[in-house]
Amino acid sequence: MTDHSDDPEVPIICEECGTETTVPLSKLETQLDRHNENRHDGEAHASVDPTLKSQLQDLVAEDLGLFE
Predict the structure, then answer these.
(1) Is 33 within a domain?
(2) How far is C-alpha 43 from the geometric centre of its chain's CA atoms?
(3) Range of the domain at 57
(4) Which helix (H) or strand (E) holds 48?
(5) In this structure, what DSSP letter does residue 64 have?
(6) Distance between CA atoms of residues 30 and 32, nearest Å
(7) How do residues 1-60 score in pLDDT, each as one tens digit?
(8) Which CATH number covers residue 26?
(9) CA distances from 54 to 32, 36, 42 (A)
């Protein structure tokens, strides 16, 4: 079981309906799926903030040595 006090918050946005929120990382997939299913008939409009997504991709690529 995840200790939610240590669970980082992740920003999600939905440009389609103009909403922004943060959710615990452990609930990210569930929240995105729920929003997209309930508001957009399952189409993937809500997603992790693109700026954060890009930063995470860079960190992972660096960690894997892909920039060397």
Answers:
(1) yes
(2) 15
(3) 4-63
(4) strand 47-48
(5) T
(6) 6
(7) 445 578 999 999 999 999 999 999 999 999 999 999 999 999 999 999 999 989 989 989
(8) 2.20.28
(9) 18, 21, 24
